[in-house]
């Protein structure tokens, strides 16, 4: 964990950020889950961010000292991607990015791998519950995964109190 204690800047990402966003995903995923197969080249991953995620999702980045250190892509009640560089995990950056998504959606679903204990603990800490587990046959990594779900709690209006006249 890094000892930097400054608050990251949260910024909307554009096409010229997609290479960096894809790189954060790649580094974070392979350092934390080294058993996963490496199925795509960096260029293919950047293309996915540029051609699929950018037109269909809100993509935000967390920057510290002019360096992109975290990224989230979300929309239509789904978090498609949420990655923080390993040296910057545990500093609240993921919570900040997830909080932005939660501000905009009343419910959220996302997939993570069953063996990704850190991600599972993170999502459960933020109120997500496991909804379904699979054997991984339907994902390209063929790795058992779990579907998480979060729903905003309805806000309660204060009950009218009888007057004490």
Any overview of this molecule?
This is GNAT family N-acetyltransferase. Keywords: Acyltransferase, Transferase. It comes from Rhizobium anhuiense. InterPro entries: Acyl_CoA_acyltransferase, GNAT_dom, YpeA/RimI_acetyltransf. This protein has 165 residues and is of the alpha+beta class. The protein is 31% helix and 28% strand. A four-stranded antiparallel beta sheet has the order 1-2-3-4, with helices on both faces. Strands 5-7-6 form a three-stranded antiparallel beta sheet, covered by helices on one side. A hairpin with a 2-residue loop joins strand 3 and strand 4. The chain is globular. The protein starts with 8 loop residues before the first strand and ends in a 14-residue tail after the last strand.
Relevant terms:
165 residues, Aminopeptidase, single chain, alpha+beta
Name the CATH class.
Alpha Beta
Percent range of helical residues:
25-40%
Distance between the termini: 60 Å
Structural class of the secondary elements?
alpha+beta
Numbering strands along the chain, what is their spatial order in the largest sheet? Answer: 1-2-3-4
Approximate shape: globular
If you compute it from the alpha carbons, what radius of gyration comes out, rounded to the nearest whole angstrom? 18 Å
Major sheet attributes: 4 strands, antiparallel
What is the typical, i.e. mean, pLDDT? 93
Give me the CATH fold name.
Answer: Aminopeptidase
What CATH architecture do you see?
Answer: 3-Layer(aba) Sandwich
Q: What is the overall number of helices?
A: 4
State the order of secondary-structure elements, H for helix, E for strand. EHHEEEHEHEE
Poorly predicted spans: none
Strand content: 25-35%
CATH-defined superfamily: Gcn5-related N-acetyltransferase (GNAT)
Overall number of structural domains: 1
Q: What is the tally of beta strands?
A: 7
